[in-house]
Structure formats: structure tokens, C-alpha cells
């Protein structure tokens, strides 16, 4: 009689064998610990704090236009590697556990979530908008949360933010996005995969405030450290 042995699951990050303690077979406990999910962060900008305060000095001095930012960790290994595998290699199956981990951090979910759009040629090039896919996963894990698509419009002729420095990003983003329709809620969360300087979510938040939205949160997988 020929016995068939199960094929072991290997970590998508380090390649080592995975046991069953993670609840999935995508990455191992060692790589999970490197995600540093419990580091103290400023509740407004999402950057790491060296003290036990809720907000950093910059946000106390000049608060952003949103109420709170939720993120899993810094945009560095291993989270950055997982995000690049999703974006460039279309490994969509890596996203649901990341989305669930993010949802678990949000104590009071917004009743409506909106996404950061892509221009049509960026969408054709990649084939999907990670912000939208992430939003769908979060909405599925929070039944009281509704996804409202196409709230913002991305203008095709504006340069990509990642090609610009901080000053140019702030100037470019005001020409890159406009409001297409007003969200049907007073408390809204903007979902993006990675927040770098915060210029994009700042401008989108200002657009929402201009049409009467009262409270805005930011949900993102990663925050780029200073």
C-alpha cells in the first residue's frame, strides 16, 4: 500500500516550514513576530513613539485633518515584502490575513469606507487597485461597515507620488485628486495600502471635510517611517 504524505506549507517570507499555530499557512511565527504589530504609535500620524503618549509632538502642534490612523506597522521587512508580493506577483491570497489583522486593531469602525483611486492607465497596468481590494476585505470582516466606491477621482496627467520628493508631493496631490460624490455618512474611513508622507490622505480628508464629513479615520497596512 502506497502512503501519500502531506506537502508541508512553507513561509512566503523565509521559506521555512510552517506549523498550524498561525491559523493560516502563509508565514511562520518567526516572521510574524518581526512585523512588530504592538509598537507604540501616534494615534494621528501612525509614526512610532518613544514615549507612552497618545500623540507625537508634531500632531499636538499641528493636528492632521483626520481623527485617527490605524496601521499594522512600518513599511519595511517583512510587511513591505508581503505588499510587494501582492502588488507585483498578484499573490492575492496574502491579503485576507493582513486585512483581518488590521481590522482587529480598529475598536470603533467607521460606518463607511472609501478608497484611494488609481488613474485608468495605472489600473490597466496593474490590473487591480490594492486599496479597493483591502477595503472589500475590511468591509467583509465588519458587517456594520459599508464600502462606497468611486468617491474620489484620480486625474491621469498628474505624476505618480512615489516619483516626487515631499515638497513636490504636497503640491502635486492637490492637482491629482478631486471629489466625485459626497459619502453618505458623517464618519468615514479612507483606506490605502501604504501611507508615505501623508500628503494624499491629507488632501482627500480635506475634500471630505469640505462637503460636511465630520470624522475621518485612515486605515492602512503600513506607514513609511521617517
From TrEMBL:
Transmembrane segments: none annotated. CDD domains: PRTases_typeI. Residues 158-225 form the Phosphoribosyltransferase domain. Belongs to the ComF/GntX family. This is ComF family protein. It comes from Vibrio barjaei. The lineage of its organism: Bacteria, Pseudomonadati, Pseudomonadota, Gammaproteobacteria, Vibrionales.
Amino acid at each position: 500500500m502506497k502512503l501519500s504524505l502531506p506537502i508541508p506549507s512553507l513561509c512566503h517570507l523565509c521559506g521555512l516550514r510552517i506549523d498550524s499555530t498561525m491559523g493560516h499557512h502563509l508565514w511562520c511565527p518567526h516572521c510574524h513576530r518581526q512585523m512588530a504589530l504592538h509598537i507604540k504609535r501616534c494615534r494621528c500620524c501612525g509614526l512610532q513613539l518613544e514615549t507612552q503618549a497618545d500623540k507625537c509632538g508634531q500632531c499636538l502642534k499641528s493636528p492632521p485633518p483626520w481623527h485617527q490612523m490605524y496601521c499594522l506597522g512600518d513599511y519595511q521587512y517583512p510587511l513591505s515584502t508581503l505588499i510587494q508580493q501582492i502588488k507585483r506577483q498578484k499573490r492575492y491570497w496574502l491579503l485576507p490575513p493582513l486585512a483581518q489583522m488590521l481590522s482587529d486593531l480598529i475598536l470603533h469602525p467607521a460606518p463607511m469606507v472609501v478608497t484611494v483611486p488609481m488613474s485608468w492607465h495605472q489600473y490597466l497596468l496593474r490590473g487591480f487597485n490594492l486599496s479597493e481590494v483591502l477595503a472589500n476585505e475590511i468591509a467583509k470582516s465588519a458587517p456594520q461597515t459599508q464600502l462606497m466606491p468611486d468617491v474620489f477621482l484620480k486625474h491621469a496627467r498628474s505624476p505618480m507620488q512615489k516619483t516626487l520628493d515631499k515638497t513636490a508631493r504636497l503640491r502635486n496631490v492637490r492637482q491629482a485628486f478631486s471629489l466625485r460624490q459626497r459619502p453618505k455618512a458623517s464618519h468615514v474611513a479612507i483606506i490605502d495600502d501604504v501611507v508615505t508622507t501623508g500628503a494624499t490622505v491629507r488632501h482627500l480628508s480635506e475634500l471630505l471635510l469640505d462637503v460636511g464629513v465630520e470624522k475621518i479615520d485612515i486605515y492602512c497596512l503600513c506607514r513609511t517611517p521617517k
